[in-house]
Amino acid sequence: MPKAVAAEWFLRLFTTPDRALAIAGDMSEEGRVSITDLIRTGASLFAGNIAGAPFRLLLLLLGGVAVNLICWDLATFALSYHTFGSVWNWSIVYAVTSRIVIPIIMGDLLVRFSTHRDMTACATHAILIWLLPVVWTVMRILATMNARPYFPWLVVLSTLVTWLIAACLLLASGIRTRKRFLAVI
Predict the structure, then answer these.
(1) CB under 8 A, 24+ apart: contacts of 7-14
(2) Average per-residue pLDDT for the chain
(3) Domain extents for the chain?
(4) Contact 27/6 with Cβ under 8 angstroms?
(5) Does this model's pTM top 0.90?
């Protein structure tokens, strides 16, 4: 039974609560509530949501990118006119703003503006905006590895951690907002 509840919670992110309950119930009756089946079903629902309204999802993603850029520009503008004493302090404030505050705002906004594709918009935004730069950065660091006699593991790990934290915060904010909206309905 706990597996069916967890499966229902996960499937609820990509479909309506009634449909998630039905799918999780079918999975538990067939005795196949496994991680692989759950991920496969979630991916199918995710792809179905993307195929159902690709233009709307594209507009949501472009709007998310615009809001990201505007928030980063506002953060940079505000931080450039405030003296924090050193470059180190400025970089900490900028990192907190760009990797914590902006993803939380973005998760909330994407769920508010997307109807019936809430977490699909958040997950797609997290993949395109937050996770793909990790791949690009790691590839760039690996390319420079040939030019240097050492491999900067600290740079790779810090890059991975900061980008993954931002993606997780975006998804968590979207989940929280979706849960709040489902409680109202």
Answers:
(1) 7/33, 7/38, 10/38, 10/42, 11/38, 11/41, 11/42, 11/45, 12/182, 13/42, 13/118, 13/119, 13/175, 13/178, 14/42, 14/45, 14/46, 14/49, 14/119, 14/120
(2) 78
(3) 1-52, 54-184
(4) no
(5) no
3-state per-residue secondary structure call for the chain? CHHHHHHHHHHHCCCCHHHHHHHHHHHHHCCCCCHHHHHHHHHHHHHHHHHHCHHHHHHHHHHHHHHHHHHHHHHHHHHHCCCCCCHHHHHHHHHHHHHHHHHHHHHHHHHHHCCCCHHHHHHHHHHHHHHHHHHHHHHHHHHHHCCCCCCCHHHHHHHHHHHHHHHHHHHHHHHHHHHHHHHHC
> Tokens 């997780």 appear where?
168
Sign of the C-alpha dihedral computed for residues 61, 65, 70 and 76 taken in this order: positive
Instruction: Please tell me the distance from the alpha carbon of residue 2 to that of residue 21, in angstroms, as a whole number.
Output: 13
Q: How many residues belong to the chain?
A: 185
pLDDT class of 81 with cuts at 50, 70, 90: low
Amino acid at 102: I
Note the pLDDT tens digit of each residue in 29-79: 877 778 888 888 888 988 888 888 888 888 888 887 787 777 777 766 666
Dihedral of the alpha carbons of 157, 123, 182, 185, in degrees to the nearest 10: 150
